[in-house]
Amino acid sequence: MIKLGTIFLSLIIFSSEVLAGRTISDDGFYGTWSTVSSILRPKRQILELSSLGGRWIQIRDNGEEKILQLKKSDISIKEDLLIVDYKNSSEDLRLKLVLAGWGSDDDKRVFGTVYLYRDHGNGLNLINGMPMSFKSGVNDMPPQQYWSFFSSPEIEQVDKGYIDNLEDSLKSIEGISISEDSNTKNYSLDRIKSVISFTKESEPSYPSVIGIRPSSNYNKPIITVGKYEDKEIKFREYYDAFLAELDDVNKNTKKELEALFEKIEEKSEAK
Q1: Domain residues for 258?
Q2: Do 158 and 77 belong together in one domain?
């Protein structure tokens, strides 16, 4: 089974990561940005911005892309605020994305709100406002293989051959790491802190697979997904045992982090 202790600790640290740096302003907003979190669907979105215009790319769960072309006039920067104002007259749709952020030269974050309007020519009609956050670059955006896997129901029976095909597709991803033990073979992608673990024939639930990844939900910091081709009872036993182990690691990791923070505070007070 997945080596939960090390993985869970890294996911917790990743989920609670705080970036410190300079406030972004002026042409610091130009470049490529990918979503860290988004209430607006689809959740994977990319901004490509320059002084001449750009693109707003929305990637659906099935991998299809919808590209919104941005004119130079659609992008405005007011000191430390970026405003992307996209208009689609054929759909009476208008999106206003307002962002601010901070970072270093090689790692920047922006966050804010996207406002959805209907524009029928007689004034804007605000529909909703939803939070979004982005990170510079696209390296932390999950590849399609991982995204489609984690976008499915928590537990799902799949067609025969699906699990073999999934494993073959993971091998082609740049930066993939493979480890194994007596019962599982694990594919991890460090840049998105996610692991997909395949059972071997020695495991009674074979063929089956379980994945874990970090979540932006504080109350549920880890998302788990499981798939099996047959042997539903055996898989559910395996999955339940995995969740129980995950819960134990969660409790122990929180205790270890609390003890670590207490030591840091004690040292700070002693100075």
Answers
A1: 142-270
A2: no
Q: Could you tell me the CATH number of the domain that includes residue 47?
A: 2.40.128
Q: Is residue 132 located within the same domain as residue 150?
A: no
Q: Which residue has the tokens 């045992």?
A: 241
DSSP 163-185: HHHHHHHHTTSTT-EEEE-SSEE
With respect to residue 250, please indicate whether it lies within any of the assigned structural domains.
Answer: yes
Q: From 199, 221, 222, select the one nearest 210 (Cα to Cα).
A: 199
Kindly report the pTM of this predicted structure. 0.78
**Cβ density class 187-211: b for 16+ within 10 Å, e for less:** bbbeebbbbbbbbeeebebbbbbbb
Number of domains observed in the structure of the chain: 2
- Is residue 227 a contact partner of residue 162, using CB atoms and an 8 Å limit? yes
Judge if 149 and 66 occupy the same domain: no
Helix (H), strand (E) at residue 14: helix 4-15
Kind of pairing between the strands at 65-70 and 75-78: unpaired
Residue at 4 is within a domain? no
Q: In terms of residues, how long is the chain?
A: 271
Residues 158 and 239 occupy one common structural domain? yes
Q: Which of 61, 21, 30, 27 is nearest to 45 (CA)?
A: 61
pLDDT in tens, the chain (271 residues): 555 544 544 454 444 444 557 999 999 999 999 999 899 999 999 999 999 999 999 999 999 999 999 999 999 999 999 999 999 867 788 999 999 999 887 789 999 999 999 877 777 899 999 999 999 999 888 999 999 999 889 999 999 999 999 999 999 998 999 999 899 999 998 888 889 999 999 999 999 999 998 876 666 778 899 999 999 999 999 999 988 888 777 676 666 656 655 665 665 555 5
138-165-209 Cα angle (round to 5) = 85
